[in-house]
Design a protein that fits this description.
This protein is mainly β. Helix content is 10%, strand content 58%. Strand 28 and strand 29 form a beta hairpin.
Length: 1078
């Protein structure tokens, strides 16, 4: 049977299969051969001959660079490919870089596609320092910066950098200024074209440790390198990091005319990345362009910070222009705003030979201008040049400085560098400064510092005038310091001004050791003169010891800048004090005499106090003695342990410091009491006290006795007079016991007080009893009365209660006759009384004022007896009074008529004022009506109103009361009198409208003129005239018999007058009158 021939399709399949098998086998064979070749190559490289050959090739390639490379042990495996155990790179000084476990990965699977995949893994690499740069000879002009490239004709068209990384890259402090650990990784690919290389590379940088430098996280480069005419085209340059971002593009011509042109945009969205705690943004553009040997830069930026905006400072626009980056020269221009007004700063600069020259510095801001020129030597930071600034007004900058300030200032600085010293000459002038409560008219200061490292000038002067600080004012001050020798200075100062009263000051001293840090003052001499007295300080001091003396003669205490009681206003002081010895254990003593201590008015006798104080061996002591009229005995002393040091400063005085002392006094009360009594008050008697002082500074304990015998107290204003005052009191460590306080009123009344106060307890407790029997306490013309009282006060801490009953026997109240519809409040001003803080004690009141009768009120035409009771509650600071005093009997006289009281109530409700309130109704018959006077409202501003039954207008009622006639029947003079009375009732006084009486008085020069009508129709005319300031004459005359007369009043003192009166019938009288106004 004939064999069947294969079909053509099967033949084609078999051929394809054989080709594929061949190709796969060939690739596998190539891979095997490559692996064998690599294994053989690695084995050969590890041989002595192979290493020698490789080392020779590397050294030949690096010969021109000045570097050398050392390699140790190659290894090969199918997994890790080629591994080098150690690599070291050196220059003439030795190794500067080392690497361990360097592994090269080569991907063989893409060889057929002409793509080489390369990876490099370095386990650890150390950069020890920056390598030496070998000086290369400059290329002649016209020679290309880079020769045309000849790209190798190799098999591969694309090289893929799959993973080139360093697991741990250590940059030493010599390289970056601090130790830094990084983990960089490079990836990307490179396309190989016949005439160019196209690359797209990314470098990622990881910092395993906490970032200390603002290094980028990633850098991306994408561009072309032309080979024939060397040029670099950068399509993309991008740098990203946590705190900033940069993106740009550009080109670089590397041929015979090398130049660049690169532009980038940058942004810093959070400035706190670089300046912690200062958020803000920075954004701008940068351009580098021009020939390689002279690259110009144009950098623009906009800075915006919230904390500046809060201070009304706007965003800053910054422009930096460099003509040559290699030799920096250019200009800086900064623009911003303050309070929406422009702020500018611009200057030219040149960095050359280590000197930065700033030329044409100009700055401006609201009310501020500045200009100057500086040359700064960077090595040593020294400067030559000058700066001038003028501030026309400081007021706009008050919000920026967060304080109120006004004024103007000028500043001029001249700087010069000599060898290793920087000197400065400064001139400062300020005018019309107002800072808080301090004002200064003018200040000029000049100083020359030959070396800024020593802040003491060799010549300096300060002059100021018109310095006001509260109650102190310096009219003029001059201070000068002059260097006498290399280490000695002379300081002189003079001043005059006012602090309570005018003063002058002169001071001088020789200073040394200012440069060495061991300052000392010799020949200290300071003198202050004020109020006719002098105080002088002399001596010396250094860092180990001092020897100072303070003396004064008739120095007035009123010249001290302190508030003093009025009794001390005329006090002068003599001092003889010294402080000397080691700074850590000095000794001190002082003898002080205070005189004359004025007690009471100017006629009171003087008292002198002598104080002797000392400090030595950690113990302080003082004695006190007094002498003068009224002092039989006045002595005291105290001592305490004390640690005192000047340097280092120490004052070992605490609340636990123990005290030890004693005192004794035997005083005449009529002299000593003037220290505490008010004007118009007096006290007589003998005051004795004695005791000891123990305890501590925090809890002093006084034990002793206090007594008063034959005492007498008088208050002329209130009429209070107490006689036969006897006091017995005992002081213990923690309590005061008042065993006896008795007094009489000079009649049959008496007062008794006793109790105790335990001030040593955490909540000081008090318990006092007050009893009065028929006590004639009030004895003035305005108020006169006798009282029975049974009161007690008890409590603890700051809360007490005053309770009990007051039962007056009688009270007479005389109301002044001169009044209007508004009665002014009594306002008693105590002489020389200073403001006091609110009392820290809270005294609650619970008092019954029980007076069923015999409260007589007379005045204003009122003669009434009241009775009732009042509850007094609230506190001593704000008492609340509730109750009503009702009329028992009484009358009211007005307009020459007697009114019967239909009702009269004095109602209290709450505080005084507005209490008490009046509710009084008086009635009288006038012709055919019943006239009524209503007095209502608060006693401080009562209201008066006329009414009648049957009801008539107020003027009709008054006409009937005053004249017994209807309105139509009164005379013209009576009409005038009626109108004036109505105005007085309405509170309008006597002014306004037509005033014929006033016209007559103005024409005649009389001070008073009045016309009165009798019931029979007769008229009496009265006229008055001040003959002198103190003599007043009044004359009356009428048509009726006996209606004439004259009265003369002579003022002897403001409170005492003499009056004499004579009638038409030659009968007369005289009297002496005393008055007191409140």
């Amino acid at each position: 049977m004939e064999e069947e021939k294969p079909k053509p399709a099967k033949k084609k399949f078999r051929r394809t299969k054989r080709v594929l098998v061949f190709l796969v086998g060939f690739i596998v064979l190539l891979a095997i051969l490559a692996q064998i070749g690599l294994w053989l190559a690695v084995g050969w490289l590890n041989s002595e001959g192979g290493q020698g050959w490789l080392q020779a090739q590397i050294n030949a390639a690096l010969k021109e660079s000045g570097y050398s490379v050392k390699l140790d042990r190659f290894r090969y495996s199918l997994i890790s490919n080629i591994t080098l155990d150690h690599l070291e790179i050196s220059d003439a000084q030795g190794p500067f870089a080392k690497a361990e476990n360097v592994t090269l990965h080569i991907g063989l699977t893409t060889i057929a596609a002409k793509r080489l995949s390369v990876g490099l893994d370095i386990a650890e690499m150390d950069i020890l320092r920056t390598p030496e740069q070998k000086q290369k000879p400059e290329k002649p002009q016209g020679v290309p910066m880079m020769e045309p490239l000849e790209l190798p004709d190799i098999y591969f068209t694309r090289i893929v950098l799959s993973d080139i990384s360093i697991e741990k890259l250590h940059l030493s402090e010599a390289v970056t200024g601090q130790d830094l650990i990084l983990s960089p990784a490079l990836s990307g690919d490179v396309l190989l074209k016949p005439d160019k290389l196209i690359s797209n590379l990314t470098l990622a940088i990881d910092q395993p440790d906490e970032a200390t430098l603002p290094l980028p996280d990633k850098i991306t480069l994408k561009g072309d390198l032309m080979a024939s005419a060397p040029a670099l085209s950068l399509e993309k340059i991008e740098v990203t990091a946590k705190g900033y971002h940069l993106k740009g593009q550009g080109m670089a011509d590397l041929g015979t005319d090398p130049k660049i042109d690169i532009t980038a945009d940058y942004a810093v969205p959070d400035l706190s990345t670089f300046a912690p705690g200062h958020p803000g943004t920075l954004a701008g553009t940068a351009n580098l362009s021009g020939p390689i040997e002279k690259i110009a830069a144009d950098i623009k930026a906009k800075l915006n910070m919230p904390e500046a905006a809060e201070k009304q400072i706007g965003p800053a626009e910054i422009v930096l222009m460099l003509g040559n980056v290699g030799a920096p020269e250019g200009a800086v221009d900064i623009k911003s705003t303050y309070q929406d007004l422009p702020v500018t700063l611009n200057t030219g600069f040149l960095l050359k030979d280590g000197t930065l020259a700033l030329s044409g510095i100009k700055a401006s801001a609201p009310e501020v201008t500045a200009h100057g020129d500086l040359k700064i030597i960077l090595d040593g930071a020294k400067a030559h040049g000058s700066l001038d600034a003028q501030i026309k007004s400081l007021e706009p900058y008050a919000p920026l400085l967060q304080t109120d300030i006004k004024g103007s200032a000028e500043l001029k600085l001249d700087l010069a560098a000599q060898e290793d010293k920087q000197s400065i000459t400064a001139n400062v002038s300020v005018k019309d400064i107002i800072y808080k409560t301090i004002s200064l008219s003018k200040l000029n200061a000049t100083a020359h510092l030959p070396d800024v490292t020593n802040p003491w000038p060799d010549n300096g002067e300060v002059n100021l005038s018109g310095l006001n600080a509260g109650e102190a004012m310096i009219e003029k001050l001059t201070a000068r310091i002059v260097q006498k020798t290399e280490s000695e200075y002379a300081l002189n100062a003079t001043a005059n001004g006012t602090a309570k009263q005018p003063f002058t000051l002169t001071a001088s001293s020789d200073l040394s050791g200012l440069k060495t840090g061991a300052p000392a003052a010799q020949n200290i001499n300071a003198l202050i003169e004020t109020g006719g007295g002098k105080m002088k300080l002399t001596g010396k001091a250094d860092q180990t010891a001092l020897d100072l003396a303070l003396t004064s003669k008739d120095f007035p205490l009123s010249g001290l800048p302190a508030e003093l009681p009025a009794q001390l206003s005329g006090l002068s002081m003599n001092i003889d004090a010294a402080l000397k010895g080691a700074l850590d254990n000095p000794e001190a003593k002082a003898d002080i005499a205070l005189s004359p201590l004025k007690l009471g008015d100017e006629n009171a006798p003087d008292v002198t106090l002598d104080i002797a104080a000392s400090y030595k061996d950690k113990n302080a002591a003082a004695t006190l003695s007094g002498k003068g009229e009224g002092i039989k005995t006045l002595t005291g002393n105290v001592s305490l342990p004390l640690t005192f040091a000047v340097q280092p400063y120490q004052l070992g005085l605490t609340e636990a410091t123990p005290l030890s002392g004693k005192f004794e006094a035997n005083l005449s009360g009529d002299k000593m009491a003037a220290l505490v009594l008010l004007p118009g008050q007096s006290f007589e008697g003998v005051i004795r006290a004695s005791g000891t002082l123990t305890g501590s500074m925090g809890q002093p304990a006084i034990t002793g006795t206090v007594s008063v015998d034959d005492g007498k107290f008088i208050d002329k204003q209130s009429g209070v007079a107490m006689n036969d005052i006897i006091v017995r009191a005992d002081l213990t460590r923690d309590s005061l016991t008042l065993s006896k306080l008795t007094a009489t009123d000079g009649e049959e009344g008496d007062l008794k007080v006793n109790g105790s106060y335990a001030f040593g307890q955490p909540d000081a407790a008090a318990d006092f009893k007050v009893r009065a029997k028929s006590l004639h306490l009030l004895k003035s013309h305005t108020a006169d009365g006798k009282f029975d009282a049974d009161l007690s006060m008890s409590g603890a801490g700051k809360k007490y209660k005053l309770s009990g009953v007051i039962k007056p026997e009688f009270i007479n109240v005389n109301i002044p006759q001169n009044f209007g519809t508004a009665i002014p409040q009594v306002n008693i001003v105590e002489a020389d009384k200073v403001d006091e803080h609110d009392s820290p004690l809270e005294i609650a009141l619970d008092i019954l004022f029980d007076m069923p009768k015999r409260l007589f009120v007379r005045g204003w035409g009122l003669d009434t007896e009241f009775g009732g009771s009042l509850d007094i509650r609230g506190t001593a600071e704000e008492p609340l009074i509730e109750g009503t005093m009702k009329s028992i009997r009484g009358t009211y006289k007005e307009f020459g008529k007697k009114f019967d009281l239909a009702k009269a109530n004095l109602r209290f409700s709450g505080t005084i004022p507005p209490s008490p309130f009046l509710d009084i109704l008086a009635e009288t018959d006038a012709e055919d009506i019943k006239a009524q006077v209503n007095l209502t409202g608060p006693v401080t501003k009562p209201g008066i109103k006329m009414s009648s039954e049957p009801a008539l207008p107020e003027d009709e009622v008054l006409a009937k009361v005053l004249f017994g006639k209807d309105m139509k029947d009164i005379s013209p003079y009576q009409a005038i009198q009626l109108a004036q009375t109505l105005r007085r009732f309405a509170g309008g006084g006597g002014g306004g409208g037509f005033d014929p009486m006033g016209s007559v008085m103005g024409a005649t020069g009389l001070d008073e003129l009045n016309v009165e009508m009798s019931e029979e129709g007769g008229a009496t005319v009265g006229a008055g005239k001040y003959l002198t300031d103190k003599v007043y004459l009044e004359v009356q005359g009428g048509g009726e018999e006996g209606s004439g007369g004259a009265r003369i009043e002579i003022e002897v003192t403001p409170n005492i007058s003499v009056e004499s009166e004579v009638g038409q019938d030659a009968q007369g009288g005289a009297g002496v009158f005393w008055k007191k106004d409140y």
